[in-house]
């Protein structure tokens, strides 16, 4: 699985941090998304897909 | 279509949990339809999930109006009643607002706050239990004991508002949101003066709170007008308690009206509470209107042509919404049912796109503590009056109840 985050599109909602806290974080200064783990283990994949689907800014892209 | 032929908002609803049946018809047959607002002006009403979600993310719509004096008015309250902000600078003002506020409400910060929120909930529930033990009929008011004081205490702390002012700003919020015309506007002005006084106090003696941060940011940025800052502070204090107060009440009613769901939560509070909260956010519809936008250019969508300056009411959660989009059967199976186990995700209960609710993580933190605690401590909780006997604020933009009598 590959994950890309678009920090320009991110609106800092933190939905991804709630959904997949081991993979996504928010920067302290502006709450914009940060990728903690660009190649997470398969156990994380469903949570990552949910985070991508639930992002209100469509700022998370998941590839094969 | 003449103004007289259009359906007039609000549509009468059977009770606080169900919507007017007309919404289902509109979603199917006219997902963006011309209506008349309670103020008597023309507007579009968007009811279907697909269009509402698209409109929420569409930058050709905003909260300001190119010619504000010509804008359709929505209601005679002083909240979501008409255009706000400056048309020329809306995008930059909004970006600055997000930049200033988003970190203070981030998921991480809210997680750190959760222990404190839990302590507050325990204290309020203790008092409610004590009151119950004293009450001859065993009936207590969950609204006064928990739904109201918790969000007020939490937002006061975050913003740096003295909790002792609670009664004062609560009364102002209430008047601002009532369909009363002049008095609503007077209350908004009073709220503004109250907030300006608080801001002046923070300027003299800054604290570690959001209003102090905003005062500091305003002083350092020429383009950040003082009235804009005061308006933002009023909005934060208003939305920061009004929405969650209503959501706790609605959530309690959804759970107690679906006893099998309440029992499931009682059996596994920690395991089920998150799904329960999302379902409360999906279904809950405290008010009778919706989120207001104005078209900033001509837009073709959902088979209609919306012209620059037209008002669009999005039937989705806000302080005052009907929330039809989240009951769209094209997206949610058995959409009217309260079912935390449903497979579908992606409700727009906190909005979508650039205006996504800044307080979403705060709301979830509060709701989580409330419903897990109620399920753990009061497993026999049940309503003391029927749905149709509740004292509902129908003259009020955010709706909700004035009291919520329960027993166990």
Element layout with pairings:
The complex is a heterodimer of chains A (64) and B (408).
Chain A: E1 2-5, H1 15-19, E2 24-26, E3 33-35, H2 45-54, E4 60-63
Antiparallel strand pairs in A: 1-4, 2-3
Chain B: H1 22-29, E1 32-36, E2 42-46, H2 49-56, E3 61-62, H3 90-101, H4 107-134, E4 140-141, H5 142-147, H6 149-159, H7 166-176, H8 182-204, H9 210-220, H10 226-257, H11 259-267, H12 269-283, E5 291-295, E6 299-301, E7 304-306, E8 311-314, H13 360-377, E9 382-383, E10 405-407
Parallel strand pairs in B: 2-8
Antiparallel strand pairs in B: 1-2, 3-5, 4-10, 5-8, 6-7, 9-10
Helix pairs in contact in B: 4-6, 4-13, 6-10, 7-8, 8-9, 8-10, 10-13, 11-12, 11-13, 12-13
List the defining traits of the structure above.
heterodimer; A: 2 helices; 23% helix; B: alpha+beta; Cytochrome p450; 5-stranded mixed β-sheet; 13 helices
Strand order in the largest sheet of chain A = 1-4
DSSP, total strands of chain A: 4
Mean pLDDT of chain B: 91
> Number of helix segments of chain A?
2
Tell me the structural class of chain B.
alpha+beta
Taking pLDDT < 50 over at least 5 consecutive residues as the criterion, the unreliable ranges of chain B are none
CATH classification, class level of chain A: Alpha Beta
What is the share of helical residues of chain A? 10-25%
The proportion of residues forming helix of chain B, as a percent range, comes to 40-55%
Order of secondary-structure elements of chain A: EHEEHE
- DSSP summary: helix tally of chain B: 13
- So what's the CATH class of chain B? Mainly Alpha
Strands across the major sheet of chain B, in which order? 1-2-8-5-3
Shape of chain A: globular
Which structural class is indicated by helix and strand composition of chain A?
A: alpha+beta
Number of spatially distinct domains of chain B: 1
The CATH superfamily title of chain B = Cytochrome P450
Tally the beta strands of chain B. 10
CATH third-level topology of chain B: Cytochrome p450
Regarding quaternary structure, what we see is heterodimer
């Amino acid at each position: 699985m590959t994950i890309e985050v678009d920090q320009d599109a991110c609106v800092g909602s933190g939905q991804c941090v709630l959904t997949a806290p081991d993979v996504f974080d928010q920067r302290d200064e502006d709450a914009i998304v940060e990728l903690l783990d660009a190649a997470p283990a398969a156990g994380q994949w469903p949570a990552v897909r949910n985070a991508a689907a639930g992002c209100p800014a469509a700022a998370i892209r998941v590839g094969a | 279509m003449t103004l007289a032929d259009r359906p007039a908002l609000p549509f009468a609803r059977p009770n606080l949990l169900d919507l007017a049946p007309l919404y289902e018809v509109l979603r199917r047959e006219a997902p963006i339809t011309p209506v008349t607002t309670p103020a008597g002006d023309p507007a579009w009403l968007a009811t279907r999930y697909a269009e509402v979600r698209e409109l929420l993310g569409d930058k050709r719509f905003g909260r300001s109006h190119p010619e504000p004096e010509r804008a359709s008015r929505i209601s005679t309250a002083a909240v979501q009643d008409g255009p706000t902000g400056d048309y020329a600078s809306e995008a930059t003002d909004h970006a600055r607002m997000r930049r200033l506020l988003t970190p203070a409400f981030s998921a991480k910060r809210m997680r750190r706050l959760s222990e404190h929120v839990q302590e507050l909930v325990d204290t309020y529930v203790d008092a409610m239990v004590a009151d119950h033990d004293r009450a001859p009929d065993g009936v207590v008011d969950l609204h006064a004991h928990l739904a109201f004081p918790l969000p007020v205490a939490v937002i006061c702390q975050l913003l740096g508002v003295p909790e002792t002012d609670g009664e004062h700003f609560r009364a102002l919020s209430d008047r601002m949101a009532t369909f009363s015309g002049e008095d609503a506007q007077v209350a908004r002005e009073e709220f503004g003066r109250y907030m300006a006084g608080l801001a002046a106090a923070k300027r003299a003696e800054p604290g570690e709170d959001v209003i102090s941060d905003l005062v500091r940011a305003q002083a350092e940025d020429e383009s950040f007008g003082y009235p804009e800052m005061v308006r933002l502070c009023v909005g934060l204090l208003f939305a920061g308690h009004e929405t969650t107060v209503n959501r706790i009440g609605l959530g309690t009613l959804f759970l107690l009206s679906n006893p099998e769901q309440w029992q499931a939560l009682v059996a596994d509070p920690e395991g089920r509470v998150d799904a329960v909260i999302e379902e409360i956010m999906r279904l809950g519809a405290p008010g009778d209107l919706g989120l207001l936008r104005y078209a900033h250019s001509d837009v073709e969508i959902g088979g209609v042509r919306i012209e620059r300056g037209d008002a669009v009411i999005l039937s989705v959660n806000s302080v005052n919404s009907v929330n039809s989009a989240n009951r769209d059967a094209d997206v949610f199976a058995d959409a009217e049912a309260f079912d935390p186990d449903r497979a579908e995700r992606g409700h727009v209960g906190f909005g979508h796109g650039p205006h996504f609710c800044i307080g979403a993580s705060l709301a979830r933190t509060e709701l989580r503590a409330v419903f897990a605690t109620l399920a753990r401590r009061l497993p026999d909780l049940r309503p003391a009056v029927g749905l149709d006997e509740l004292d509902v604020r129908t003259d009020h933009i955010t709706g909700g109840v004035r009291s919520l009598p329960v027993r166990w």
